[in-house]
Amino acid sequence: MLLSGFRTARPAALIGRLLWPIALIVVAVIAGMLLALTYMSNSVDQWSIAEQRQRIVGTLTTHKTKVEQRLDTILATTDLTASEAPSAASLPNVAGDHAFAHAGRFDALVIMEGPRIVRTVALSGTDRAGEHGSREALVRFFLSNPPTPGQAIDHFVYHDSAVYLLVAKDARRPKPAAVAAPHRTVVLIYRYTHGDVEEIGRASGSAPVTLSRQPDPRHQILPIKSSLGDTVSLSWQPSSPSEAVWPRLVGIAALTSIIALIALGIVWLVIRRLARDEIRDQESSRRLAGQDALSGLPNRLSFSMRLEQELARGQRTGEGLAVLFLDIDRFKDINDIYGHAIGDNVIRIVAQRLSDLLRGADTLARLGGDEFAIIQTGVSAHHDAEALSRRILDAMKKPIEMGDTIVSVGASIGIVLSPQNSTDRETLLRLAETALYQAKNGGRNRFSFVERQMDEALRLRKVVEDDLRKAIENDELVLHYQPQVEIDNYTVVAVEALVRWPHPVHGMIAPEKFITVAEERGLIIALGEWVLRRACTDAMRWPGVRIAINVSAIQFRHRDFVSDVMRIITDCGIDPTRVELELTESVVVKDADAAEEAMIELRAHGVRLALDDFGTGYSSLIYLRRFAFDKIKIDRSFLEAAETTGESAILIHSIVHLGRALGLTVTAEGVETHEQLEFLRALGCHELQGYLFSKPVTAEEIDVILAQPGTLEERATLVKKVARGSKSAP
């Protein structure tokens, strides 16, 4: 269900994450464009309206200025203060200065003394019948509501269905001053026809201007005073530049929107395709996640899930099952000898053989490497799982033929039963692994059922694996030392360093419990360097005493082994001739040429070499003569058997005489009795090591032993006293 939910949710989330932000961006861009265009068009229209209004006001101002100039001309050339007012014919002809020559135009000059009209002179056009009285009322209204300076529109008055432009000035007295005359005001009146009003709009570049008492609210207006006290407005339809541009802008916006929608559709299609591909890939990944690519079998994850299901079914039905862990014996050697391609084919063939042996209800999986696991259902007792295991071992005995290559394989099987051993999945897997280790340790090509002791051993191994690295890094390990004495005077000539691990929870852990783990987990190099450095440091307290250190095969074959040893010796400041490295026979024969080269280099620096456990391995005289050893050590097993079998005594005799003949120091391990001591003395053995002289003890206890010279009996008494006070384990 988890994989299914992941498979369906992830493409939808991908579409939602990619498509909707793009859609929102597109919508936002289009909306932004429309808002910007609307704002720009409104701004342009507002600017255009203001510009039109300014042009109309400017046209009216120009008219007022010209009328004022005409009146100034009349006043400058005519004495209007005389008792007899001039006639139209006596006034200067200034009609050419006026900008209007429209048919029906009329203007007149009105001379007043106070509120009384002295005379009206028609300057041009035709005076309409009955207009004289109206004109007097117009002039009186104009003079009683003087215009505001600088506002041309205030010089216009609406009267009797017509617009009049009026300009008033005082009449000038001629020089020299004449007889005192009454004060006179001269008003020049210009009457606009409808054509003149329309001309104002055309002159200003606007739409036609009309007069209206109730203009269209959508139009622009300029209010004009009316002689009746109300307002009449010049109104015009403002031109809108955006109206010409807007269709194009809308077209552009529509085209952009269409392109955006097309792009969005393309993106949608692409995402849909990506989503389909992703679903297909996830389906494939889901299958591969539960399947081993090499063998085609279910993998560890699928096996664990299936085991959980079978355990749940067994609790409902009461049916038992068995879990079998299978490991191909020495599969690493197959890869090393024949290559990984052959190794992969072996995995496939083994997987097929196992599949042929199982029922449809059983489950076979490859856990990784050369490890397989089986769930055998319907198991009621040990014999059901035992029968299947025997069939598997018989099938594995048949050699695997691949062309000209024939590979012999075997298998080790660990078996755990449910519910007898456990009904918990993790516990069953752990116990099956424990049983597998037991089968491999028992000689391989066999099967083993889990036992309680196995589980405890596996738990301890897990603790070692988890805590060993930390113990090395935190300096939690300790060294104990066992003396090696000369057989003649019992003088301590060397001490062998033996590593111990005082675990804070599990107590003192012996070397055999963690050395192998260190080798498997790649910690043996760090562990070996720690032991060498600590041993050399402690040995500086014991001048004249050699320090013997065991070296593992992996450590010795490391490419930097010699340089690391010499670096540590130099750092500690110890004489290299006091350092003695103990090697087993298997260490040097694995790669004889490389081992010989390393040993020659070490001896060139003065480091001594000892062959440990001599007689238990290859024991080839050729290797003994070839390699430059300084000492051979007789394994304790020969000395233990020498008291009961004559063959062991003869073998010890041969080893001692061989060593003396080759000029090597011979040391016997495991000396515990005076009889063994005398036997070795008679043979001519050089050095002894064992509980007769001392158990492995701490460095402080070695200080005590070296500070108390004496006979063997005295030393033995001292050792017993030290051992009683020591808390160290043998």
From TrEMBL:
The keyword Transmembrane helix applies. It comes from the Bacteria. CDD domains: EAL, GGDEF. The chain crosses the membrane at residues 20-40, 249-271. PROSITE patterns: EAL (PS50883), GGDEF (PS50887). Pfam families: EAL, GGDEF. Keywords: Membrane, Transmembrane, Transmembrane helix. One of its GO terms (biological process) is cellular response to nitric oxide. InterPro entries: Biofilm_reg_signaling, EAL_dom, EAL_sf, GGDEF_dom, Nucleotide_cyclase, Rev_trsase/Diguanyl_cyclase. GO terms for molecular function: cyclic-guanylate-specific phosphodiesterase activity. It catalyses: 3',3'-c-di-GMP + H2O = 5'-phosphoguanylyl(3'->5')guanosine + H(+). This is Diguanylate cyclase (GGDEF)-like protein. It comes from Chelatococcus asaccharovorans. The lineage of its organism: Bacteria, Pseudomonadati, Pseudomonadota, Alphaproteobacteria, Hyphomicrobiales.
